[in-house]
Amino acid sequence: MLSLASIALLPGSLATAWAAPPAWDHLADGLRVTLWFTPCQDVPPLVMIEIDPDRYRFSVHYYRNEGLAQPPDIHEWQVRTRHDVLFNAGLFRENFAYLGLLFGNGLSLGGKQHGTWLGLFVAEPTTPGAPPARILDLAVESFDAQQLPYREAAQSLMLLDENGTVRVRRSGKQAHQTILAEAIGGRVMVVKTTQPATLFDIGQCLHAVFPTIRRAMAMDGGSSSDVALAPVLRRNAAQANLGAAWMTFLDDASAGHIGLPAVIGISPRRASAAPQEIPSRKSATR
To answer: Is the pLDDT of residue 211 over 60?
Structure first.
């Protein structure tokens, strides 16, 4: 009999047969969440948020361009931007300068292209017909910062390429991680660990047992790894008896969140598609 530890080493087609598909909770049209209990021994359960970029637009924010003196934490960013979902962007220096390309609304937010971090998340194309959001692999693709093909962009570490190659070194360093993945068909996944893990183990596990993931990149990890869900979505999920598994990992507004210089948020493309709070039974009967 195969052990769970051996599953992550199996070829993708065989390993998939051993992996239970995640049970998704639908929060809105084009937005769903799950807590996925991976079959990989060294990878803890992962909170996964799947986003349809045809229904949600992505926006990159950098604190200095917002006129702020200090980086807000994830919940302060959420209050300020009112996005449905927010997550940490990429890596930054001690002076909060972003490490890599960073564009928001078609404007450079101060970062320069990093020579060895070859993952680039892009969204909101400037030319018709292009995918609304995707991950570029700068080892085989280019990005023209002078004639922007996308209005939003954030560079970070390439984790997993479309050949199934894990593009980070194997190490014993464990930390909380935020992963951004592109699925076959164009959907975008935000993945957050529930316990510390290594990037290499996560990349190997995703390739082996989550066959719909095409590419993935690692955003900043450790104390910077953070994801926030809008309060109205949390309340709607609770009232619909959803989120029992994942809510505690996205509902922590307590102290301890560090300031994040750059974040990426999503909002519905149409105002009419914005989530409306479900009225309580008491108010609904008035």
So the answer is: yes
